[in-house]
Amino acid sequence: MISSAARAAASRLFSPEFRSVFAKTLGLTLLALAALWFAIEGLFEWLAWPWIDAWLPSLPSWAGWLGFIVAGIGLALGLALLIAPVTAIIAGLFLDDVAEVVERTDYPNDPPGRAMPALRSMVLAIRFFGVVIVGNIVALLLLLVPGINIAAFFIVNGYLLGREFFEFAAMRFRPEAEARALRKKHAVTVFLAGLVIAAFLAVPLLNLLTPLFAAAMMVHLHKAISAREAA
C-alpha cells in the first residue's frame, strides 16, 4: 500500500491537473521560507551578533571568517528544520485542493470527500505547526547523542507528518474522532508512510514540493486502507 501510494502521488506532481495547486503551494512555501530566513537572520543579529562582535577584535582574522561561516551554516540548518512545520501549515491550506484533484482523477467512481470547514482546518494546521516545531527541536537536541543522530530527524518527522497528513486526508470522509481511531489502528503503516514523506523532505529542492506529495500520498493511502477495512 505504501509504495503504491507513494508512486501514485509522485506521478501526479507535475501533471496538468495539479498545475494550479502546484503553483500555489510552491509559491507560498517559498514565500514562507523566505520570510522565516529574514526572521531568523534578524533574531541572530539581535541576540547573538553583539556578543560575537565584542569578541572579534581579540580573535585572529581567520577566526572571524570561521565565525561567519559557522553562523551561515547555523542559519541554514535553522531554516532546514523549519521546512517541516512550514510544510504542515501550507498543506493545511491546500490539502482539500490536492485531495479533490486526486479523488477526481484517480477515483472518479467513488463519492467525493467533504472539505473541512476553513476555520477548523486552520486551527488544526496551526496546532500541527507548533507540534512539529517542538518535535524538530527535540530532534535537533538528539543530533548530539551518539548512535541516534540523523535517525532522530526521520523518526520524529516520520511520526508527526504521517499522523497529521493521514488524519487530514481521512477527515474528508470521517468524523475527526473516527479518523484518529483509524490512524491508531493502522499506526505502523501510517508511520512507515510518514518515513517516506520524511525522506522526501530530506532531499534539497525536492522538499519544497513536500505539501503536495504528502497530501496526495495520504489520500491514496487512506483510500487503500478504507478498501481493506470494507473488505
From TrEMBL:
It is a multi-pass membrane protein. Its main location: membrane. Signal peptide: none annotated. It holds the Pfam family EI24. The chain crosses the membrane at residues 21-40, 65-95, 124-144, 150-166, 187-209. It is found in: Membrane. Coiled coil: none annotated. The keyword Calcium does not apply. Keywords: Membrane, Transmembrane, Transmembrane helix. NCBIfam families: PRK12768.1 (NF009407). This is Cysteine biosynthesis protein CysZ. It comes from Mesorhizobium wenxiniae.
